[in-house]
Amino acid sequence: MNAKIRLVALALCSGAFCAQAQNTVVGTGTFGSGVNEPSSIQNTIVGPGNAGASNAGQGANAFFGYQTGMYIKDASRNTFLGASAGTNKISGNENVFTGYSAGNKDTYGNYNVFTGAYAGFNSSKASNNVFTGWSAGYSNSIGEHNVFSGYKSGYLNLAHNNTFYGAYSGMNNTTGYGNVFSGVSAGYSNTTGIYNTFTGIQSGNSNSTASYNTFYGSLSGRSNTTGQYNTFTGINSGNSNSSASFNSFYGSHSGNSNTTGGNNTFTGSNSGRLNTTGGNNTYTGVNSGYSNKTGYSNSFYGYDSGRLNTSGFQNIFLGFNAGYGNTTGNENVSIGASSGYSIASGIKNVFLGFIAGFNSTGSANTYLGSRAGFKNITGSQNVFLGNAAGYNELGSNKLHIANNRTTTLIYGDFLTGKVAIGGINTYATPDTFPATAGAVSLANYKLFVKGGILTEEVRVNLMSAWADYVFAPEYQLKPLAEVETFIKENGHLPNVPSAAKVAEEGLELGEIAKIQQEKIEELTLYLIEQNKKMDEQNKKIEELTKQVKILSERN
Protein backbone atom coordinates (compact mmCIF):
# COMPACT_ATOMS: atom_id res chain seq x y z
CA MET A 1 0.00 0.00 0.00
CA ASN A 2 1.21 3.51 -0.82
CA ALA A 3 2.77 5.27 2.23
CA LYS A 4 0.60 8.41 1.95
CA ILE A 5 -2.55 6.30 1.75
CA ARG A 6 -1.48 4.32 4.85
CA LEU A 7 -0.98 7.59 6.80
CA VAL A 8 -4.41 8.93 5.86
CA ALA A 9 -6.01 5.62 6.77
CA LEU A 10 -4.20 5.63 10.11
CA ALA A 11 -5.36 9.16 10.83
CA LEU A 12 -8.97 8.34 10.09
CA CYS A 13 -8.85 5.26 12.27
CA SER A 14 -7.20 7.08 15.19
CA GLY A 15 -9.93 9.69 15.50
CA ALA A 16 -7.95 12.66 14.23
CA PHE A 17 -10.70 13.26 11.76
CA CYS A 18 -14.34 13.60 12.76
CA ALA A 19 -17.59 15.10 11.52
CA GLN A 20 -19.80 17.19 13.84
CA ALA A 21 -23.10 18.72 12.65
CA GLN A 22 -21.99 18.76 9.05
CA ASN A 23 -18.60 20.21 10.03
CA THR A 24 -15.27 18.84 8.93
CA VAL A 25 -12.51 18.85 11.53
CA VAL A 26 -8.98 17.65 10.91
CA GLY A 27 -6.43 17.84 13.73
CA THR A 28 -6.09 17.65 17.46
CA GLY A 29 -7.89 20.93 18.15
CA THR A 30 -11.22 21.34 19.80
CA PHE A 31 -14.24 22.33 17.74
CA GLY A 32 -16.79 23.86 20.07
CA SER A 33 -20.27 22.56 20.43
CA GLY A 34 -21.48 26.13 20.23
CA VAL A 35 -22.43 28.53 23.02
CA ASN A 36 -25.64 29.33 21.25
CA GLU A 37 -27.74 26.59 19.76
CA PRO A 38 -27.88 25.33 17.20
CA SER A 39 -24.16 24.90 16.72
CA SER A 40 -22.47 26.31 13.65
CA ILE A 41 -22.52 24.01 10.64
CA GLN A 42 -20.76 23.51 7.35
CA ASN A 43 -17.40 24.61 8.79
CA THR A 44 -14.01 23.25 7.88
CA ILE A 45 -11.39 23.26 10.61
CA VAL A 46 -7.88 22.04 9.90
CA GLY A 47 -5.13 22.42 12.50
CA PRO A 48 -4.29 22.00 16.14
CA GLY A 49 -4.71 24.39 19.04
CA ASN A 50 -8.43 25.11 19.35
CA ALA A 51 -9.00 26.28 15.83
CA GLY A 52 -12.61 27.49 15.65
CA ALA A 53 -13.07 26.40 19.22
CA SER A 54 -15.92 28.80 20.06
CA ASN A 55 -17.66 28.84 16.73
CA ALA A 56 -21.45 28.86 17.01
CA GLY A 57 -22.61 31.08 14.16
CA GLN A 58 -24.25 30.45 10.84
CA GLY A 59 -21.24 28.48 9.67
CA ALA A 60 -19.64 27.95 6.28
CA ASN A 61 -16.30 29.05 7.71
CA ALA A 62 -12.95 27.54 6.77
CA PHE A 63 -10.16 27.61 9.40
CA PHE A 64 -6.72 26.34 8.48
CA GLY A 65 -3.92 26.58 11.05
CA TYR A 66 -3.11 26.80 14.71
CA GLN A 67 -5.72 28.85 16.65
CA THR A 68 -7.34 30.20 13.48
CA GLY A 69 -10.74 31.71 14.27
CA MET A 70 -10.29 30.52 17.84
CA TYR A 71 -12.86 32.87 19.41
CA ILE A 72 -15.29 33.14 16.55
CA LYS A 73 -18.93 32.98 17.70
CA ASP A 74 -21.36 34.48 15.25
CA ALA A 75 -19.42 34.75 11.98
CA SER A 76 -19.95 32.98 8.73
CA ARG A 77 -18.43 32.47 5.31
CA ASN A 78 -14.96 33.39 6.58
CA THR A 79 -11.74 31.80 5.39
CA PHE A 80 -8.73 31.94 7.71
CA LEU A 81 -5.50 30.34 6.58
CA GLY A 82 -2.38 30.49 8.77
CA ALA A 83 -1.50 30.08 12.42
CA SER A 84 -3.37 32.59 14.60
CA ALA A 85 -5.14 34.03 11.58
CA GLY A 86 -8.39 35.66 12.76
CA THR A 87 -7.76 34.31 16.26
CA ASN A 88 -9.92 36.95 17.97
CA LYS A 89 -12.70 37.03 15.44
CA ILE A 90 -16.10 37.10 17.16
CA SER A 91 -18.50 38.07 14.42
CA GLY A 92 -18.33 39.38 10.90
CA ASN A 93 -18.74 37.69 7.61
CA GLU A 94 -16.99 36.88 4.38
CA ASN A 95 -13.46 37.71 5.47
CA VAL A 96 -10.40 36.06 4.02
CA PHE A 97 -7.27 36.09 6.21
CA THR A 98 -4.19 34.34 4.84
CA GLY A 99 -0.90 34.30 6.70
CA TYR A 100 0.47 34.02 10.20
CA SER A 101 -1.61 36.22 12.53
CA ALA A 102 -3.35 37.84 9.59
CA GLY A 103 -6.37 39.69 11.00
CA ASN A 104 -5.43 38.38 14.41
CA LYS A 105 -7.31 41.07 16.38
CA ASP A 106 -10.21 41.37 14.00
CA THR A 107 -13.45 41.02 15.96
CA TYR A 108 -16.39 42.41 14.00
CA GLY A 109 -15.09 43.34 10.55
CA ASN A 110 -16.73 42.21 7.34
CA TYR A 111 -15.57 41.64 3.78
CA ASN A 112 -11.86 42.01 4.50
CA VAL A 113 -9.08 40.26 2.62
CA PHE A 114 -5.76 40.08 4.49
CA THR A 115 -2.88 38.22 2.87
CA GLY A 116 0.50 37.95 4.53
CA ALA A 117 1.91 37.45 7.99
CA TYR A 118 0.48 40.05 10.39
CA ALA A 119 -1.54 41.61 7.60
CA GLY A 120 -4.39 43.54 9.23
CA PHE A 121 -3.15 42.27 12.57
CA ASN A 122 -4.97 44.87 14.71
CA SER A 123 -8.02 45.26 12.55
CA SER A 124 -10.97 45.01 14.90
CA LYS A 125 -14.13 46.56 13.53
CA ALA A 126 -12.99 47.61 10.07
CA SER A 127 -14.59 46.28 6.91
CA ASN A 128 -14.05 46.17 3.17
CA ASN A 129 -10.26 46.29 3.34
CA VAL A 130 -7.74 44.44 1.21
CA PHE A 131 -4.27 44.09 2.78
CA THR A 132 -1.55 42.11 1.01
CA GLY A 133 1.98 41.78 2.35
CA TRP A 134 3.83 41.21 5.61
CA SER A 135 2.25 43.50 8.25
CA ALA A 136 0.29 45.36 5.62
CA GLY A 137 -2.35 47.43 7.42
CA TYR A 138 -0.97 46.09 10.68
CA SER A 139 -2.45 48.80 12.92
CA ASN A 140 -5.64 49.39 11.01
CA SER A 141 -8.48 49.00 13.47
CA ILE A 142 -11.35 51.07 12.12
CA GLY A 143 -10.25 52.23 8.66
CA GLU A 144 -12.42 50.91 5.83
CA HIS A 145 -12.34 50.60 2.07
CA ASN A 146 -8.54 50.50 2.02
CA VAL A 147 -6.29 48.54 -0.31
CA PHE A 148 -2.73 47.96 0.94
CA SER A 149 -0.29 45.81 -1.01
CA GLY A 150 3.34 45.42 0.00
CA TYR A 151 5.56 44.84 2.99
CA LYS A 152 4.31 47.06 5.86
CA SER A 153 2.21 49.08 3.49
CA GLY A 154 -0.29 51.17 5.47
CA TYR A 155 1.26 49.78 8.64
CA LEU A 156 -0.14 52.47 10.99
CA ASN A 157 -3.24 53.32 9.02
CA LEU A 158 -6.50 54.10 10.85
CA ALA A 159 -8.20 55.97 8.00
CA HIS A 160 -10.52 55.12 5.14
CA ASN A 161 -10.40 54.95 1.35
CA ASN A 162 -6.65 54.66 0.89
CA THR A 163 -4.82 52.61 -1.72
CA PHE A 164 -1.17 51.77 -1.03
CA TYR A 165 0.96 49.58 -3.34
CA GLY A 166 4.58 48.74 -2.53
CA ALA A 167 6.71 47.90 0.45
CA TYR A 168 6.46 50.60 3.15
CA SER A 169 4.01 52.58 1.04
CA GLY A 170 1.87 54.75 3.33
CA MET A 171 3.53 53.00 6.25
CA ASN A 172 2.98 55.85 8.75
CA ASN A 173 -0.39 56.98 7.52
CA THR A 174 -2.79 57.28 10.45
CA THR A 175 -5.86 59.37 9.66
CA GLY A 176 -5.12 60.53 6.12
CA TYR A 177 -7.76 59.32 3.69
CA GLY A 178 -8.44 59.21 -0.03
CA ASN A 179 -4.74 58.63 -0.79
CA VAL A 180 -3.20 56.48 -3.50
CA PHE A 181 0.46 55.50 -2.91
CA SER A 182 2.16 53.17 -5.35
CA GLY A 183 5.82 52.21 -5.08
CA VAL A 184 8.34 51.20 -2.46
CA SER A 185 8.10 53.71 0.45
CA ALA A 186 5.68 55.86 -1.51
CA GLY A 187 3.95 58.19 0.97
CA TYR A 188 6.01 56.56 3.70
CA SER A 189 5.66 59.42 6.22
CA ASN A 190 2.15 60.51 5.39
CA THR A 191 0.11 60.76 8.58
CA THR A 192 -2.93 62.98 8.11
CA GLY A 193 -2.63 64.14 4.49
CA ILE A 194 -5.65 63.44 2.31
CA TYR A 195 -6.37 62.89 -1.37
CA ASN A 196 -2.73 62.46 -2.37
CA THR A 197 -1.55 60.31 -5.27
CA PHE A 198 2.08 59.15 -5.09
CA THR A 199 3.41 56.74 -7.71
CA GLY A 200 7.03 55.59 -7.77
CA ILE A 201 9.74 54.46 -5.36
CA GLN A 202 9.85 56.86 -2.37
CA SER A 203 7.52 59.29 -4.09
CA GLY A 204 6.06 61.59 -1.45
CA ASN A 205 8.22 59.74 1.05
CA SER A 206 8.28 62.54 3.65
CA ASN A 207 4.78 63.85 3.09
CA SER A 208 3.10 64.11 6.47
CA THR A 209 0.09 66.41 6.64
CA ALA A 210 -0.06 67.78 3.10
CA SER A 211 -3.03 67.07 0.90
CA TYR A 212 -4.18 67.10 -2.71
CA ASN A 213 -0.75 66.30 -4.17
CA THR A 214 -0.01 64.13 -7.18
CA PHE A 215 3.52 62.72 -7.51
CA TYR A 216 4.52 60.34 -10.33
CA GLY A 217 8.02 58.92 -10.57
CA SER A 218 10.75 57.53 -8.40
CA LEU A 219 11.65 60.00 -5.60
CA SER A 220 9.15 62.54 -6.89
CA GLY A 221 8.07 64.89 -4.10
CA ARG A 222 10.25 62.87 -1.76
CA SER A 223 10.77 65.63 0.83
CA ASN A 224 7.36 67.21 0.66
CA THR A 225 5.91 67.59 4.15
CA THR A 226 3.17 70.21 4.17
CA GLY A 227 3.00 71.48 0.58
CA GLN A 228 -0.39 71.05 -1.04
CA TYR A 229 -1.97 70.97 -4.50
CA ASN A 230 1.31 69.99 -6.17
CA THR A 231 1.76 67.80 -9.24
CA PHE A 232 5.22 66.24 -9.72
CA THR A 233 5.83 63.85 -12.62
CA GLY A 234 9.22 62.24 -13.30
CA ILE A 235 12.19 60.82 -11.43
CA ASN A 236 13.27 63.20 -8.65
CA SER A 237 10.72 65.77 -9.71
CA GLY A 238 10.04 68.07 -6.76
CA ASN A 239 12.36 65.88 -4.70
CA SER A 240 13.18 68.57 -2.10
CA ASN A 241 9.83 70.31 -2.04
CA SER A 242 8.82 70.70 1.60
CA SER A 243 6.07 73.23 2.20
CA ALA A 244 5.50 74.83 -1.20
CA SER A 245 2.10 74.51 -2.80
CA PHE A 246 0.39 74.78 -6.19
CA ASN A 247 3.44 73.57 -8.16
CA SER A 248 3.40 71.43 -11.30
CA PHE A 249 6.68 69.71 -12.21
CA TYR A 250 6.86 67.44 -15.26
CA GLY A 251 10.07 65.61 -16.20
CA SER A 252 12.96 63.89 -14.47
CA HIS A 253 14.60 66.13 -11.85
CA SER A 254 12.22 68.96 -12.64
CA GLY A 255 11.92 71.22 -9.58
CA ASN A 256 14.30 68.83 -7.85
CA SER A 257 15.53 71.34 -5.23
CA ASN A 258 12.35 73.34 -4.75
CA THR A 259 11.58 73.81 -1.06
CA THR A 260 9.11 76.63 -0.48
CA GLY A 261 8.62 78.16 -3.93
CA GLY A 262 4.95 78.02 -4.91
CA ASN A 263 2.79 78.36 -8.01
CA ASN A 264 5.53 77.06 -10.32
CA THR A 265 5.10 75.02 -13.49
CA PHE A 266 8.23 73.18 -14.69
CA THR A 267 7.99 70.95 -17.75
CA GLY A 268 10.98 69.03 -19.07
CA SER A 269 13.91 67.09 -17.70
CA ASN A 270 15.90 69.23 -15.23
CA SER A 271 13.59 72.18 -15.70
CA GLY A 272 13.81 74.40 -12.60
CA ARG A 273 16.05 71.77 -11.06
CA LEU A 274 17.75 74.06 -8.52
CA ASN A 275 14.75 76.23 -7.75
CA THR A 276 14.38 76.63 -3.99
CA THR A 277 12.10 79.51 -3.02
CA GLY A 278 11.29 81.09 -6.37
CA GLY A 279 7.59 81.24 -7.11
CA ASN A 280 5.18 81.91 -9.96
CA ASN A 281 7.64 80.57 -12.55
CA THR A 282 6.83 78.68 -15.74
CA TYR A 283 9.67 76.67 -17.30
CA THR A 284 9.10 74.48 -20.35
CA GLY A 285 11.92 72.55 -21.98
CA VAL A 286 14.86 70.39 -20.98
CA ASN A 287 17.12 72.34 -18.57
CA SER A 288 14.93 75.43 -18.78
CA GLY A 289 15.42 77.54 -15.64
CA TYR A 290 17.83 74.86 -14.42
CA SER A 291 19.77 77.10 -12.00
CA ASN A 292 16.96 79.29 -10.77
CA LYS A 293 16.83 79.48 -6.97
CA THR A 294 14.94 82.54 -5.81
CA GLY A 295 13.88 84.15 -9.08
CA TYR A 296 10.14 84.61 -9.46
CA SER A 297 7.50 85.27 -12.10
CA ASN A 298 9.72 84.01 -14.92
CA SER A 299 8.53 82.27 -18.08
CA PHE A 300 11.14 80.18 -19.93
CA TYR A 301 10.22 78.11 -22.99
CA GLY A 302 12.78 76.03 -24.87
CA TYR A 303 15.78 73.80 -24.29
CA ASP A 304 18.28 75.51 -21.92
CA SER A 305 16.20 78.68 -21.89
CA GLY A 306 17.13 80.78 -18.83
CA ARG A 307 19.37 77.94 -17.72
CA LEU A 308 21.71 80.03 -15.52
CA ASN A 309 19.04 82.26 -14.03
CA THR A 310 19.36 82.27 -10.24
CA SER A 311 17.48 85.24 -8.81
CA GLY A 312 16.34 87.12 -11.91
CA PHE A 313 12.63 87.81 -11.97
CA GLN A 314 9.83 88.66 -14.38
CA ASN A 315 11.77 87.47 -17.43
CA ILE A 316 10.31 85.87 -20.56
CA PHE A 317 12.68 83.68 -22.59
CA LEU A 318 11.35 81.76 -25.58
CA GLY A 319 13.54 79.57 -27.78
CA PHE A 320 16.54 77.26 -27.65
CA ASN A 321 19.14 78.81 -25.30
CA ALA A 322 17.11 82.01 -25.05
CA GLY A 323 18.35 84.02 -22.06
CA TYR A 324 20.74 81.17 -21.28
CA GLY A 325 23.28 83.28 -19.35
CA ASN A 326 20.84 85.45 -17.43
CA THR A 327 21.56 85.18 -13.70
CA THR A 328 20.10 88.17 -11.84
CA GLY A 329 18.63 90.21 -14.68
CA ASN A 330 14.94 91.03 -14.57
CA GLU A 331 12.12 92.18 -16.79
CA ASN A 332 13.86 90.90 -19.93
CA VAL A 333 12.13 89.44 -22.98
CA SER A 334 14.18 87.18 -25.28
CA ILE A 335 12.33 85.45 -28.12
CA GLY A 336 14.35 83.41 -30.59
CA ALA A 337 17.04 80.76 -30.42
CA SER A 338 19.99 82.03 -28.34
CA SER A 339 18.50 85.52 -28.13
CA GLY A 340 19.84 87.39 -25.09
CA TYR A 341 22.18 84.47 -24.51
CA SER A 342 24.75 86.37 -22.40
CA ILE A 343 22.49 88.86 -20.69
CA ALA A 344 23.67 88.03 -17.10
CA SER A 345 22.42 90.93 -14.95
CA GLY A 346 20.91 93.19 -17.60
CA ILE A 347 17.38 94.45 -17.08
CA LYS A 348 14.45 95.60 -19.20
CA ASN A 349 15.82 94.27 -22.49
CA VAL A 350 13.72 93.08 -25.42
CA PHE A 351 15.48 90.74 -27.86
CA LEU A 352 13.45 89.29 -30.72
CA GLY A 353 15.05 87.11 -33.39
CA PHE A 354 17.68 84.42 -33.86
CA ILE A 355 20.73 85.30 -31.66
CA ALA A 356 19.40 88.84 -31.26
CA GLY A 357 21.46 90.52 -28.52
CA PHE A 358 23.54 87.36 -28.21
CA ASN A 359 26.48 89.05 -26.45
CA SER A 360 24.59 91.81 -24.67
CA THR A 361 25.04 92.35 -20.95
CA GLY A 362 23.51 95.83 -20.93
CA SER A 363 20.06 97.05 -20.01
CA ALA A 364 16.98 98.63 -21.58
CA ASN A 365 17.91 97.53 -25.10
CA THR A 366 15.38 96.71 -27.82
CA TYR A 367 16.72 94.46 -30.59
CA LEU A 368 14.24 93.22 -33.20
CA GLY A 369 15.63 91.05 -35.97
CA SER A 370 17.91 88.12 -36.55
CA ARG A 371 21.45 88.91 -35.32
CA ALA A 372 20.40 92.41 -34.29
CA GLY A 373 23.01 93.99 -31.99
CA PHE A 374 25.13 90.85 -32.19
CA LYS A 375 28.48 92.43 -31.22
CA ASN A 376 27.14 94.89 -28.68
CA ILE A 377 28.29 93.77 -25.23
CA THR A 378 27.91 96.52 -22.63
CA GLY A 379 25.71 98.98 -24.49
CA SER A 380 22.39 100.02 -22.99
CA GLN A 381 19.25 101.80 -24.14
CA ASN A 382 19.82 100.92 -27.80
CA VAL A 383 17.08 100.35 -30.36
CA PHE A 384 18.03 98.09 -33.31
CA LEU A 385 15.32 97.21 -35.84
CA GLY A 386 15.80 94.81 -38.76
CA ASN A 387 17.94 91.90 -39.86
CA ALA A 388 21.44 92.36 -38.40
CA ALA A 389 20.57 95.94 -37.43
CA GLY A 390 23.25 97.41 -35.18
CA TYR A 391 25.33 94.26 -35.69
CA ASN A 392 28.63 96.12 -35.22
CA GLU A 393 27.41 98.85 -32.89
CA LEU A 394 29.36 98.89 -29.62
CA GLY A 395 27.92 101.99 -27.94
CA SER A 396 24.80 102.95 -26.02
CA ASN A 397 21.71 105.06 -26.72
CA LYS A 398 21.85 104.34 -30.47
CA LEU A 399 19.15 103.79 -33.07
CA HIS A 400 19.76 101.51 -36.05
CA ILE A 401 17.15 100.61 -38.64
CA ALA A 402 18.74 98.37 -41.24
CA ASN A 403 18.48 95.10 -43.15
CA ASN A 404 22.17 94.22 -43.14
CA ARG A 405 25.18 94.42 -40.88
CA THR A 406 27.24 96.99 -42.80
CA THR A 407 25.08 100.03 -43.59
CA THR A 408 22.30 101.59 -41.55
CA LEU A 409 19.40 103.21 -43.37
CA ILE A 410 18.25 105.25 -40.35
CA TYR A 411 20.72 106.00 -37.60
CA GLY A 412 20.10 107.97 -34.43
CA ASP A 413 21.63 109.00 -31.14
CA PHE A 414 19.20 109.31 -28.23
CA LEU A 415 21.60 111.39 -26.14
CA THR A 416 21.98 114.13 -28.78
CA GLY A 417 18.55 113.62 -30.30
CA LYS A 418 20.07 113.39 -33.79
CA VAL A 419 18.74 111.25 -36.64
CA ALA A 420 20.41 110.47 -39.95
CA ILE A 421 18.80 108.98 -43.08
CA GLY A 422 20.47 107.49 -46.10
CA GLY A 423 23.38 105.40 -44.84
CA ILE A 424 25.37 108.07 -43.02
CA ASN A 425 26.50 105.61 -40.36
CA THR A 426 28.78 102.82 -41.53
CA TYR A 427 30.41 102.05 -38.14
CA ALA A 428 33.62 103.80 -39.23
CA THR A 429 33.42 106.00 -36.14
CA PRO A 430 31.17 105.91 -33.09
CA ASP A 431 29.23 108.94 -34.32
CA THR A 432 29.36 110.02 -37.98
CA PHE A 433 26.91 112.89 -37.92
CA PRO A 434 28.39 115.92 -39.79
CA ALA A 435 29.85 118.25 -37.17
CA THR A 436 30.29 121.43 -39.27
CA ALA A 437 29.37 122.93 -42.60
CA GLY A 438 32.48 124.97 -43.33
CA ALA A 439 32.96 127.16 -40.29
CA VAL A 440 29.38 126.69 -39.14
CA SER A 441 28.75 124.32 -36.23
CA LEU A 442 25.97 121.77 -36.74
CA ALA A 443 25.76 120.87 -33.08
CA ASN A 444 22.15 121.98 -32.81
CA TYR A 445 20.99 120.24 -35.98
CA LYS A 446 18.85 117.13 -35.41
CA LEU A 447 18.02 115.63 -38.83
CA PHE A 448 20.57 114.72 -41.49
CA VAL A 449 19.67 113.29 -44.88
CA LYS A 450 22.16 111.92 -47.35
CA GLY A 451 20.86 112.65 -50.85
CA GLY A 452 17.91 114.83 -51.83
CA ILE A 453 14.57 115.44 -50.22
CA LEU A 454 11.45 115.52 -52.38
CA THR A 455 8.35 116.82 -50.67
CA GLU A 456 5.19 118.68 -51.56
CA GLU A 457 5.56 121.23 -48.82
CA VAL A 458 8.09 122.48 -46.29
CA ARG A 459 7.10 124.74 -43.44
CA VAL A 460 9.92 126.57 -41.68
CA ASN A 461 9.39 127.87 -38.20
CA LEU A 462 11.67 130.93 -37.99
CA MET A 463 13.62 131.43 -34.82
CA SER A 464 14.23 135.16 -35.65
CA ALA A 465 12.11 138.16 -36.80
CA TRP A 466 10.75 138.25 -40.34
CA ALA A 467 12.03 140.94 -42.74
CA ASP A 468 9.23 143.45 -42.12
CA TYR A 469 11.73 145.40 -40.03
CA VAL A 470 12.72 146.97 -43.37
CA PHE A 471 9.52 149.02 -43.26
CA ALA A 472 10.23 150.35 -39.79
CA PRO A 473 10.90 154.16 -39.70
CA GLU A 474 14.27 153.67 -38.07
CA TYR A 475 15.50 151.28 -40.73
CA GLN A 476 18.52 152.67 -42.55
CA LEU A 477 18.07 151.94 -46.24
CA LYS A 478 21.43 152.14 -47.98
CA PRO A 479 21.68 154.56 -50.88
CA LEU A 480 21.83 152.80 -54.26
CA ALA A 481 25.23 154.29 -54.90
CA GLU A 482 26.51 152.68 -51.74
CA VAL A 483 24.90 149.40 -52.78
CA GLU A 484 26.54 149.72 -56.18
CA THR A 485 29.91 150.26 -54.56
CA PHE A 486 29.39 147.20 -52.26
CA ILE A 487 28.46 145.02 -55.22
CA LYS A 488 31.51 146.11 -57.18
CA GLU A 489 33.77 145.38 -54.21
CA ASN A 490 32.17 142.09 -53.00
CA GLY A 491 30.27 140.61 -55.90
CA HIS A 492 27.00 140.14 -54.00
CA LEU A 493 24.30 142.16 -52.25
CA PRO A 494 24.82 143.42 -48.72
CA ASN A 495 23.69 140.94 -46.02
CA VAL A 496 23.47 138.13 -48.59
CA PRO A 497 25.94 135.19 -48.34
CA SER A 498 28.44 134.97 -51.13
CA ALA A 499 28.56 132.10 -53.57
CA ALA A 500 31.74 130.86 -51.94
CA LYS A 501 30.17 130.89 -48.51
CA VAL A 502 27.08 129.09 -49.76
CA ALA A 503 29.25 126.49 -51.43
CA GLU A 504 31.17 125.98 -48.21
CA GLU A 505 28.48 126.25 -45.54
CA GLY A 506 25.23 125.62 -47.38
CA LEU A 507 22.01 127.52 -46.80
CA GLU A 508 19.70 127.89 -43.88
CA LEU A 509 16.29 127.93 -45.56
CA GLY A 510 14.59 130.09 -42.96
CA GLU A 511 17.46 132.60 -42.85
CA ILE A 512 17.88 132.85 -46.62
CA ALA A 513 14.13 133.25 -47.08
CA LYS A 514 14.22 136.13 -44.61
CA ILE A 515 17.21 137.73 -46.37
CA GLN A 516 15.53 137.42 -49.74
CA GLN A 517 12.39 138.95 -48.30
CA GLU A 518 14.55 141.72 -46.89
CA LYS A 519 15.92 142.47 -50.36
CA ILE A 520 12.44 142.37 -51.88
CA GLU A 521 11.19 144.85 -49.33
CA GLU A 522 14.28 147.05 -49.79
CA LEU A 523 13.74 146.93 -53.56
CA THR A 524 10.13 147.94 -52.99
CA LEU A 525 11.30 150.95 -50.98
CA TYR A 526 13.78 151.85 -53.74
CA LEU A 527 10.95 151.66 -56.31
CA ILE A 528 8.68 153.78 -54.17
CA GLU A 529 11.48 156.34 -53.83
CA GLN A 530 12.16 156.26 -57.56
CA ASN A 531 8.44 156.60 -58.27
CA LYS A 532 8.29 159.71 -56.11
CA LYS A 533 11.23 161.20 -57.96
CA MET A 534 9.66 160.35 -61.29
CA ASP A 535 6.40 162.04 -60.22
CA GLU A 536 8.33 165.20 -59.30
CA GLN A 537 10.22 165.08 -62.56
CA ASN A 538 7.00 164.61 -64.49
CA LYS A 539 5.51 167.61 -62.78
CA LYS A 540 8.59 169.69 -63.65
CA ILE A 541 8.51 168.42 -67.22
CA GLU A 542 4.83 169.29 -67.49
CA GLU A 543 5.52 172.73 -66.10
CA LEU A 544 8.40 173.27 -68.52
CA THR A 545 6.24 172.04 -71.38
CA LYS A 546 3.61 174.62 -70.55
CA GLN A 547 6.24 177.40 -70.43
CA VAL A 548 7.71 176.35 -73.79
CA LYS A 549 4.27 176.40 -75.32
CA ILE A 550 3.61 179.89 -74.03
CA LEU A 551 6.92 181.13 -75.39
CA SER A 552 6.18 179.55 -78.74
CA GLU A 553 2.80 181.23 -78.98
CA ARG A 554 4.36 184.65 -78.27
CA ASN A 555 6.75 184.31 -81.11
What does the model show?
The chain is an alpha/beta fold and 555 residues long. Among the domains are: 314-446; 481-554. It contains 4 helices and 31 strands. The chain has helices at residues 3-14, 480-490, 499-505, 509-554, and strands at residues 17-20, 23-26, 44-46, 62-64, 74-76, 79-81, 91-93, 96-98, 113-115, 130-132, 147-149, 163-165, 180-182, 197-199, 214-216, 231-233, 248-250, 265-267, 282-284, 299-301, 316-318, 333-335, 350-352, 366-368, 383-385, 398-401, 410-413, 418-421, 436-437, 440-441, 447-449. The chain has a 27-stranded mixed beta sheet. It has a two-stranded parallel ribbon with strand order 5-7. A hairpin with a 2-residue loop joins strand 29 and strand 30. The radius of gyration is 51 Å and the shape is rod-shaped.
Summarize the structure.
With 555 residues, the chain is of the alpha/beta class. The chain has helices spanning 3-14, 480-490, 499-505, 509-554, and strands at residues 17-20, 23-26, 44-46, 62-64, 74-76, 79-81, 91-93, 96-98, 113-115, 130-132, 147-149, 163-165, 180-182, 197-199, 214-216, 231-233, 248-250, 265-267, 282-284, 299-301, 316-318, 333-335, 350-352, 366-368, 383-385, 398-401, 410-413, 418-421, 436-437, 440-441, 447-449.
